[in-house]
Amino acid sequence: MKKTSLRRLIDDHQPDAIQRRLNRPNQSNVVADSVLGGIDGCVTTFAVVSGVIGANIYPPVAVVLGFANLVADGFSMAVSNYEAIRTEEERVQSLRQLENEHIDKVPDGEKEEVRQIFSSKGFTGSTLDSIVSTICSNRRLWIDTMLSEEHQVHPNSRSPIKAALATFLAFVFVGAMPLIPFLLTSLTKQSQFTLSAALAAIMFFGIGAIKSHLFSKPIMIGGLKTLLIGGTAATLAFATGFLLKGVFGIDSV
Length: 253
Description:
Blueprint: H1 6-12, H2 15-23, H3 31-54, H4 60-105, H5 107-119, H6 125-136, H7 139-149, H8 160-176, H9 189-214, H10 219-247
Helix pairs in contact: 3-4, 3-8, 3-9, 3-10, 4-5, 4-7, 4-8, 5-6, 9-10
C-alpha cells in the first residue's frame, strides 16, 4: 500500500469516512493476475526463443512455436485461474450451506461454538453473553462468523471472468514482445536474438518495477528480482537447446 501523510490518515479515520469505506462495494483486484500472466507469458515465449537459438534452429521456427505456445498457454492459464477462483467460491458456498443447516438442526450447539470462539479471544461474563446474543440474532452474521472463525475462509470478491481476462491479456501482450524481432526478416539471426533478449529484459524488469511501485516496495530491487527469474528461465532453455542439439545431431542453420 502507498504511504499516506498523518493528516490524511486522521481524515480517513473519522467516523463518516470509516462508514463510507466499510460500505464501499468490494472491487476485484486483477493486479496479481496481470503480473502472473505477464511474467509467465514472457518466460514462455523467450524460453522458446532461447531454446531455438541454443539449438541453432531456423529462426522462423521460434515465431511459429512462440505464437502457438502464446495462445495455447495463455488460454490454459486463464482457464486455470478462472477454475481456481470458481472452485474457492463453490467451497465457500458449500460451507455456508452446511453452517445454515447446522443452525437449523443444532442451534444450541452452534451458539456454544460462537461462545467458545469469543471466549478464547478473552471475552467473559456479560460482555461475552452480549456478543453471542448479537451474533446469533442475525443469521447471516452468524454464518459469516462461523465461516471466518471456524473454517478460516472469507467470501471472495474476485471476479473469475475478470481474473481470467487479465491473465490472458497480460500473458499475450507481454509474451509477444520477445517474438517481434523475429518478424523483422531484414535483421540477422544474432541481431534478432539480441533485440529479443533486450525486449524480454525490459518486460521482466518493468513488471517487477510496477508491482513494487503499487505496493510501495523498492522499485529497483523488485525489477531486478523479476529480471533474474526471467533470465534464469531463459538461460536454462538456451542450455537445454544447446545440449539437445548435440544429442540429436541437429545441423546448424
